[in-house]
Amino acid sequence: MIPSERNVEGRALRTGRRRALASALAYSAPPAATLLIGGLAWELWTRLSAVPEYIVPAPSAALGRLASDPAYFAGEGAVTLGEALAGFLLGAGVALMGATLMAHSRFIERSLFPLAILVKVTPVVAVAPLFVIWFGFGPIPKALIAALITFFPVLVNGVTGFRSVDRGALDFMRSLRASRLEIFLKLRVPSAAPFVFAAFRVAVPLSVIGAVVGEWFSGDRGLGSIIIVAHSNLDMPTLFAAILTLSAMGVALTAIVSAVERKALFWHESHEEL
Question: Can you tell me the distance from the alpha carbon of 182 to that of 14, in angstroms, rounded to the nearest whole number?
Fold first, then answer.
């Protein structure tokens, strides 16, 4: 490669990096500013009104507790994260299989969808103690509760996506005598991908909630257990530090899903630059 070509390539690479950095700052700056303003207002309110720490701690107290033992919260957060991800993968996998069957058969949809609604409307806190009795005190009941809470949004969006195919494209593939598998892989899956990723963005933070609920009933590890113990001891800084860790975990997981979506669906109109 001649020097001029290397210079052009280097400038293009630097320009791309600057644009990516500017895009990231434009995306993250508004929520960061909002959180900062809200945190400062909260800090001032607790200091001026002299609210007892065992009722509402100042943000500085929660951040100080988190900074005093980051390894503790990171270790317990890793336990909760593992349970949440296992539940998410299980719930999303079962939901996508069910959505595939329902999208190809109205009879199967009429048979299974009422059961899915029953799962949706059943309170998780009512099912969690049963899972503890049936599956013990290990990670399995937490993962199952996380799967239960993530199942329905992925199922509904999956069914909608698999059926939201262009009628002209479908007729064209049928005229070419494409098999049902070819139609599914080359037409239905791309059509459903935006719907499925939208469901993933909803389901990923829900899986964290499901894991925490499971830890309330059956956990001696995890952030949910920390919250229960801290609440019993009126240790609000520790409780809020655990909540901050959970919030950071949920934001990070959602950001990861969004990044994967942008890479996988670069061709979709929802990711076009306006």
Answer: 41
For residues 42 and 76, state if they share a domain.
no
Same domain, 232 and 186: yes
What is the distance between the alpha carbons of residues 102 and 113, in angstroms, rounded to a whole number? 8
Question: 32-60: per-residue pLDDT in tens?
Answer: 788 788 888 888 888 888 888 888 888 88
The residue type at 146: A
Radius of gyration in angstroms for the set of CA atoms belonging to the chain, rounded to a whole number: 24
Same domain for 106 and 24: no
**Residue 18 belongs to domain spanning:** 1-50
- In the chain, alpha helices (H): 3-49, 59-68, 70-104, 106-121, 124-135, 139-163, 167-175, 180-183, 189-218, 223-232, 236-264
CATH classification at residue 184: 1.10.3720.10
What is the spatial distance between Cα 139 and Cα 156, in angstroms, rounded to a whole number? 27
132, 196 Cβ separation under 8 angstroms = no
Q: Residue 259: how many CB atoms within 10 A of its CB?
A: 10
| Helices 70-104 and 236-264: angle between axes, nearest 10 degrees | 40
120 plus 17 within the same structural domain:
no
Residue 267 φ then ψ, to 5°: -85, -15
Residues 257 and 242 in one domain: yes
Q: Which tokens sit at 58? A: 């100042």
User: Of 34, 50, 66, which marks where a domain is finished?
Assistant: 50
Question: Which tens digits make up the pLDDT trace of 109-163?
Answer: 888 888 888 888 888 888 888 888 888 888 899 999 999 999 999 999 999 888 8
Q: Domain count of the chain?
A: 2
- pTM > 0.70: yes or no: yes
